[in-house]
Amino acid sequence: MAEKLLLRAIKGGKNTHIITLSGKKIIKIPSTLEKLPDLKTLYLQNNLISKVCPEISALTQLTILNLGNNLLEEVPEEMKYLTSLKKLHLFGNRICRFASGACDGLQNLILLNLNDNHLTWLPQDVGRLKSLTHLSVNCNELASIPIELCFLKDLCELQLNYNQLTCIPEEIKFLKKLQKFLLVRNYIEVLPEGICNLKKLSILDIAGNNIQIFPPRFHNLKLTEFYCEENPLFLKQPTVALQQEDIWSLQEITSRYVMNQLAGKHPFLTRAIEHYPEVRNLISQAKKCPICGKFFLSIWLECVRFVPPPKKWKISRNLQLVPLQVLICSYKCFNRRDPDLFGIAQV
Ligand SMILES: [Zn+2]
């Protein structure tokens, strides 16, 4: 039946570069497609296709393929032969995995729509989709995203709404062209500091997560829209912190000493440190106390500062003040803090 429909579509169509066979209850992709190597656009959405036929591999000129709302269970291996493909729609299937090699030939793909499937993970191979600018994987079961995804240098839109993400990798900072980032309804508790490096980011939606505080420099983002409803954001309520003595580990004491001597350009240590790459690596992770200006390594007090949202941000109603994370070096400095810095009660 599908073959007949195809013939009819070819005869009836004015443009032989486009075939539309959507909503025809097709179970099997017509194999005669292989006789149309110049085909540019193929619409097969809203059918009952559970497998892609091998003949589709002949469509090396195809630029748009829509297989949305079918019964596929994987991103088919045959995709790797569709080397001209620019837009691939696979939404509304039952996809729970990528066939091995599926991403291999998709060097020109700019849009991939995998919304409404059953993916629990994305393969590292997505890093091979070098031209990708738009990726949406809304309404799946993703528990994490692969770091390789953060190296798609042209990606400008990333939609991951309604998944089970608990964190976002720090490497997100490498998505230099990202403009739109949607993370609605996940289980994210902390946004990575790297997000503050996304200079092009203009729309960020984190509604429905578990975020209490934002990384330092977050308010410097040039957002136009920011939505954060239904997050347990810190509100401006002073908490009484216990004024304990600080107990530091030997490593912390030593590294603070070394880091602060280095900051003062201590001649002997400055020379000596050249011979200890591991120590250099360790102290490169140093943080600077905003109160005393000194460096510390791994023991700190987490505080929160509330800043008004930048005027250019279009924001959700629940956000009166943006709670920003501030790390300080000691209780000594905590006791010297200015009145708009609040301690966070340790639960
Ligand atoms: Zn300090």
Features:
eleven-stranded parallel β-sheet; alpha/beta; single chain; 347 residues; 5 helices; 12% helix; binds zinc ion; Leucine-rich repeat, LRR (right-handed beta-alpha superhelix)
Task: Describe the protein's architecture and organization.
InterPro entries: Leu-rich_rpt (IPR001611), Leu-rich_rpt_typical-subtyp (IPR003591), LRR_dom_sf (IPR032675), LRR_domain-containing (IPR050216). It holds the Pfam family LRR_1. This is Leucine rich repeat containing 69. It comes from Sciurus vulgaris (Eurasian red squirrel). Keywords: Leucine-rich repeat, Repeat. This protein has 347 residues and is of the alpha/beta class. It has helices spanning 2-12, 250-263, 267-272, 277-283, 331-334, and strands spanning 18-20, 41-43, 64-66, 74-75, 87-89, 97-98, 111-113, 134-136, 157-159, 180-182, 203-205, 225-227, 287-288, 295-296, 301-307, 314-315, 322-328, 341-343. Among the domains are: 2-164, Ribonuclease Inhibitor (Leucine-rich repeat, LRR (right-handed beta-alpha superhelix), Alpha-Beta Horseshoe), CATH 3.80.10; 250-296, no CATH class. The chain is 12% helix and 16% strand. The longest helix is centred in the last third of the chain and has 14 residues, at 250-263. The protein has an eleven-stranded parallel sheet. The mean pLDDT is 91. The protein has five helices and 18 strands. The structure holds zinc ion. Residues 289, 291-292, 294, 328-330, 333 line the site of zinc ion (ZN).
